Structures are given as structure tokens and as C-alpha cells.
Amino acid sequence: MHCLRKTVLYVAFVALILPLMHTDSNAQVLTLTSATVSPATGNIYSDSTAISVYVNSGTDEFAGVDIDLAYTGSIQYLSGTGAARCSTFTITPGTGTLNILCLSTQHSTGQAYSGVIATLYFKSTASSGTASISFTSVDPNAPVKTGGTYTLTSATNPNTGTGGGLPDSGLFDDSRSLIVMGVVVMLLGLFWNKVSNVGVLFMGKVKAAREEMEERETMKRRSRVEKDF
To answer: Which helix (H) or strand (E) holds 53?
Structure first.
């Protein structure tokens, strides 16, 4: 099943590449300048370690790439993700091998590319030793192919959270923000309550003073009327 899927995707890849190659005397075959893995050294941990595959098409248009990788040592391939440039992306694992197929169909004509095409996740199955990842085939060809050599450890990855190598969720940071916001809202509520009480008290005093003035004015008018009589 994997062979059939790879054959179909490879045919689609060739069909996409062929129109981009000229057939006249000035024909130019699309190539890559380099294919590398990063980091090229370091530890592979017992839970999950990310290793990215980079390509650089130089000034040529990047329409896709078909890469075969081989890895040795006591490591296990877990999963992989493709880059946004890959309109179609597949990883076909084998015994100590990975085939990465990236097809780019949504880019502008002539658009080159230099960057990640795949992020691979491995874990160590040994407490010590070494492992290596190398390129066995790159199509279009890349004259520079740089693999990596790694140290195996039984330790867990200090750069990832618990959730399968996913980053920490930031729950405590969000909680602190919510607490601060709640305190501010509570203080504003208390302040507004005080302001409202003061306002009510002030308006009551103003009303009482006004009523007292009106009563005095009424008494004065009555006194004047009585004097006239």
C-alpha cells in the first residue's frame, strides 16, 4: 500500500516538475543547492526530540522534493509534520528509513524557497550510545547533503512539556492575568460603590439644603404678607 501511494505521488511529482523544465538548447534542470538536518548534533531524549529537514533551492523555482533518509542507532521515529510550503506532504517510514515527499503547487511562478520542509520527531530507546541521520537520495539533486550525529540519553527532553513534546500550555501565566484582572475589577467595584454612596449622600444633603432654603423663603413671604395686613 505504501509503495502504491508513493508511486502515485511520485508520478504527480514528475508531472508537476516536467512543465517547469525547458526542452530547447537552453534547458535548465531545477536543482537544490543544499539539503540539511538541524540540529546536526545534540541529544536525542527518551520522550521526544524534534529534528528539522531544510532545503535551499537557491535561485531556482521550488516545486517540490523527494527525500530518502536513513537513520541508525537505538532511536525510534514517532511522527512528522510538513511545512506550509508543501501543498501535498507525506512521510513513508520503513525499517531505519524515511521517505519525505513535498509537493508545492500554490506558489508563484519562479518562486524559490529556503527553509524547513519537514519536522521529524524521534525518541531514544537506549540510555547511551549514538545515532545518525543521513540523506541517501534527494530529488531534485542537492550537491550539499548534511546529516547529523546524536548522543542518546534516557533523560526526558527539558525543552518540551508533557503532552507528547508539546510546549507548556502557559496555564499559570493565564491564571495570574485572570487573578490580576479580577482584583482590578473588584477594586473598581468597591470604588464605584463608595463613589455611589458619597454621591447619594451628597445629593441627599443638597436636597435637604434646598428644601430648607425653600422653607425659609416661604416663611419670609408669609411674614411679609402678615406685616402688610
So the answer is: strand 49-56
pLDDT tens-digit readout, 98-130: 999 999 999 999 999 999 999 999 999 999 999
Q: Are 83 and 67 in contact (CB under 8 A)?
A: no
Q: Which residue has the cell 542537492?
A: 142
pTM of the model: 0.61
- Our CA angle for 163, 167, 168, nearest 5°, is 85
Question: CA 190 → CA 149, 182, 229, distances in Å?
Answer: 63, 12, 59
**Cβ neighbours, 10 Å, residue 136:** 13
- Give 84-98 pLDDT, tens digit per residue: 999 999 999 999 999
Q: Which fold has domain 2-168?
A: Immunoglobulin-like (2.60.40)
